[in-house]
Amino acid sequence: MSHLMHYPDLMVCVLAAGKGKRMRSNLPKVLHPILGKAMLEHVLHTVEELQPKKIAVVTGDGSEQVRAYIGQPANLEWVIQDRQLGTGHAVRQCENVCTEVTDIMIVCGDTPLLRCETLDRLARHHQHSAAEVTFLSARLDDPFGYGRVLRDADGNIIGIVEERDATDEQKRIREVTSGIYCVKQKVLFDLLAQVGNRNAQGEYYLPDIVPLALQAGMNVQAVDMDDAGEIRGVNNRRQLAEAERVMQQRIIEDWQLAGVTIEQPETVRIEASVRIGMDTIVRAGSQLNGSTCIGDECCIGPYAVLENSWVDDGTRIEAFSHVVDASVGGSCRIGPFARLRPEAKLDDQVHIGNFVEVKKAVVGEGTKINHLTYIGDAVLGRHCNIGAGSITCNYDGANKHLTEIGDDVFVGSDTKLVAPVKVGSGATIGAGSIITRDVPSQGLTLSARPDQRHVPNWQRPTKRSS
């Protein structure tokens, strides 16, 4: 936005009480996720950007689930609609909390594609035109299902008619109401008190305040939307998928404009809470989910999956790697086919190679674990080299135990470290060893069933100069 939005005299009512029968789900409709956030969460995030005085959310079926998911933000009021008798009835339930404000904005909890810029235009037009009632309208090629905006021969608004109650001629009207209104607080509830339910559904329709306001000589305005797709409601799984497709396209385009290269964007998933630094490349088929945060100049994928993870600058997450609830330092190389599980914490310049799994482990700077290895419940120092096929045997069948490895340790291939066990800095463990006791610093430790022995003055080989 080009200006800071702040509407201290505005209250926003979010209507989220619908049953959502067409979703065919035990989950309340407004909690169905789109790119990692519930529909209602997207709507609340949008209206919060207006910085209104407060927000009221009207819930009905599944109210406890909705409240448990959203929590209790400081400026949010919960309102119950115990009987679903229409949108007008839903707004009336807000009367006791809609105080100390000049205007009330009404939005729907199942319109996740709505943009804050659009609501800002609505609020500004409403204030500047001194209207009592202002609503968003749109022109659709296929207006089926929406209320039609009725105008006279001079183009003046004379009413709104719902699809169910419209005549065949009225159904051919392409201008529709969005269901999104801004109304003066001092007139809203007086108008709602006059709304009847003599219609096909026996419900109290919010749009019926428009003809009532006109009859009373009030100023009624309509703001034409730039993008009619924003009012698209979600009532079934097909519409849910379509809304996610549109939102995904928006998110990808925003990141492209922010300096992120996204290869084959139609194959990539980037959820709404993800953050990505400049000059990072996201390759085909990759998924960035949850609260994942990626630094500058990283390379992700192809076909990598990251969820709720931190990746610092200059790191490469190679093909088919899976990173969940993990933290990766700068200039690391992960994969291909690597798996970082929850509480994996990697320092800078760490290498995690193919078919290596790390879980609840700290890995120090410059350490390399390049092949076919499991590191779990462990602390590894700096500049270690862990050979292929090595395992920290952390589970005794009942409890997990810790393996501690110092700095500059070399662990030979196919070594088993039976926790709890400590390996001193500078130690070398011969390939194929089974380590059941602490290993002293420096020197070479070997084991072969059943004995383990230590060579204290052994020197590690050095590379021959070419």
Describe this structure in words.
- With 466 residues, the protein is α/β, with parallel strands linked by helices.
- It has two domains: 7-231, Spore Coat Polysaccharide Biosynthesis Protein SpsA, Chain A (Alpha-Beta Complex), CATH 3.90.550; 237-455, UDP N-Acetylglucosamine Acyltransferase, domain 1 (3 Solenoid), CATH 2.160.10.10.
- It contains eight helices and 40 strands.
- A hairpin with a 5-residue loop joins strand 8 (148-151) and strand 9 (157-161).
Strand % is 25-35%
Whole-number mean pLDDT: 94
Q: CATH class of the largest domain, anyone?
A: Alpha Beta
- The CATH superfamily of the largest domain is identified as Spore Coat Polysaccharide Biosynthesis Protein SpsA, Chain A
Q: What is the CATH topology assignment of the largest domain? A: Spore Coat Polysaccharide Biosynthesis Protein SpsA, Chain A
**Helical percentage:** 10-25%
**Total count of domains:** 2
Q: Structural class of the helix and strand makeup?
A: alpha/beta
Keywords:
14-stranded parallel β-sheet; single chain; UDP N-Acetylglucosamine Acyltransferase, domain 1; 466 residues; twelve-stranded mixed β-sheet; Spore Coat Polysaccharide Biosynthesis Protein SpsA, Chain A; elongated; alpha/beta
Summarize the structure.
By secondary structure, this protein is of the alpha/beta class. It is built from 8 helices and 40 strands. It folds into 2 domains: 225 residues, Spore Coat Polysaccharide Biosynthesis Protein SpsA, Chain A (Alpha-Beta Complex), CATH 3.90.550.10; 219 residues, Hexapeptide repeat proteins (UDP N-Acetylglucosamine Acyltransferase, domain 1, 3 Solenoid), CATH 2.160.10.10.
